[in-house]
Amino acid sequence: MNVPYSSQDFRPALPDAIEAEQALLGAILISADAYWRVAGFLKPQHFHEQLHGQLYETIGTLIAEGRAATPITVKPYLPADRMVGEMTLFEYIVRLTSEAVTVSGAYDFARAIIEMWARHQLIGVAQDLDTLARNMPIDMTPEKIIASSADQLTRIAQEGNERAGATKYGVLLPNAVSKAAQASTDTAARIPWFLPEITEALGDIRRGNLIGLMSDSGGGKTSFSLQQCRHAASKGFRSAFFSIEITEEESALQAAAQQSQISLGRIDAYTLNSKEAADLETEMSKAVDLPFYIVGFGECSLSDIRIKAEAMVKSQGLDLIVIDHAKMITLPNPKDMFAERINALYRGLKALAKSLNIGIVILIQRNDDWKQRWRAGSELRPVMGDAYGGGSIKQSLDVWFSLYRPEPLYRELIPTMPPEYLSKAQKEEGKKTRKEEMIQKLEQCRGRAWVINHKRRRGEPGRSPEIAFDGEYTMFKSAGAELPPAFEGFEGF
Ligand SMILES: Nc1ncnc2c1ncn2[C@@H]1O[C@H](COP(=O)(O)OP(=O)(O)OP(=O)(O)O)[C@@H](O)[C@H]1O
């Protein structure tokens, strides 16, 4: 028996936003302000009706040239023989103008158009995915299909957020002022750091921002991040620690050691006294309700991180992700130069923070260049060029700081220093060998750390407050000291 219809014949027709397109074109023909409200993100190709996209482009060009855009001024640029149903194109735009009800609704019409465009794009991706999954080419793997679909989906999500177009100052300003006023009272918009000194130096963590935290290996990035995630979660911010280096269980034990002030070594060896065991029990019961997630990764790429982050945002929501650490992420585009691949990684992370509207902190390993600089007589403290990926990563970061702990560096260097002998007279004068000077500095910087601010998109970098590091619990705390003035305090270490 012949089946007269396939199930596809019953699929509903695709939706469109024709009315929103007409209302927007009418609004723009009444007032150029309506155009400037949407020109930053709405492009001609977003229109479902091709003719509307062409009209939007023509009208936009006139306005951008500083000319009035009315049906009369637009008419010379319209094809005279083009008909819309029974009407000439000119009659059609006269009607759009006369039926336009509101100029202030332009932004909402444009959002409706973009949303419809995005839905059509999603249907396209879904159809491609369906075809690829059914007939997988030999050079494909499910992971590659997922990664390429994730790229397309992120591009679709970002498209409507593009603000690259020129928007008139007078139009932007009222929005910017009301947003700033709203954000100042909206405590949910900014995620606090776990120590006031850090907030003083860097400002709060803002949504959509990518923050770089650099330190030497063993400098305390992981410890700092676990403390930060635990703290943010205790304030109600949903925080995730993406651990590529240590296991989820190791991360959980370290966070518990910090919180309960139990020696990490004793937790690891499980030689706890009764008070420590009770404190750990208390932390376990508190932890149940904390929105603090630890996600273990093996080797992973930016796509893996994006897929996980997007899934988490959709399922339980997220405010903050800390990724430990950049060097462990497989770089994209193997055929490109290293510098381009690194920049693609940081750009991708920035785009992810923006599209998911969350704060992302990326931990960055410092390279060993400081050793050569030190041999040549320089200080040990970090500079931007020490970052894995070099100083150019700065452009993708909204905030960039180093967690500088000189103590382990001195410990590493002192045994490598050649012996030096002083004469009796020199000793009597109080002269010290370079090694003795280093040992003295080591004593002076025990348990001390500095937050060195390299970049802050909002506000001047410069303030580099001192904090304290307690190695027993691998935790940072307030140094209790007055904040030092810019670039003082760690001079000489
Ligand atoms: N399980 C542990 N037991 C004892 N000490 C630890 C433990 N984990 C970390 N530490 C110590 O805490 C300090 C900070 O380590 P942390 O792992 O936070 O640094 P990091 O910057 O993340 O290092 P890396 O980049 O090498 O992972 C180091 O001195 C380290 O030896």
- Determine the structural class based on helices, strands and strand pairing: alpha/beta
> Measured on Cα atoms, how large is the radius of gyration?
29 Å
Q: Estimate the mean pLDDT confidence.
A: 86
Unreliable stretches (pLDDT < 50, length at least 5) are: 1-7, 481-489
> Can you count the helices?
19
Q: List all distinct small molecules, including ions and cofactors, that are bound in this structure.
A: adenosine-5'-triphosphate
Q: Count structural domains.
A: 2
At the third CATH level, what is the topology name of the largest domain? Rossmann fold
Q: Which assembly state applies to the chains in this document?
A: single chain
The best one-word shape is: elongated
Outline the biggest β-sheet: 9 strands, mixed
Query: Strand percentage, roughly?
Result: 5-15%
Strand order within the widest sheet?
Answer: 7-6-9-11-5-12-13-14-15
Please give the CATH architecture of the largest domain: 3-Layer(aba) Sandwich
**How many β-strand stretches?**
15
GO molecular function, one term: hydrolase activity
Organism: Pseudaminobacter soli
InterPro entries: DNA_heli_DnaB-like_N_sf, DNA_helicase_DnaB-like_C, DNA_helicase_DnaB-like_N, DNA_helicase_N/primase_C, P-loop_NTPase
Protein name: DNA 5'-3' helicase
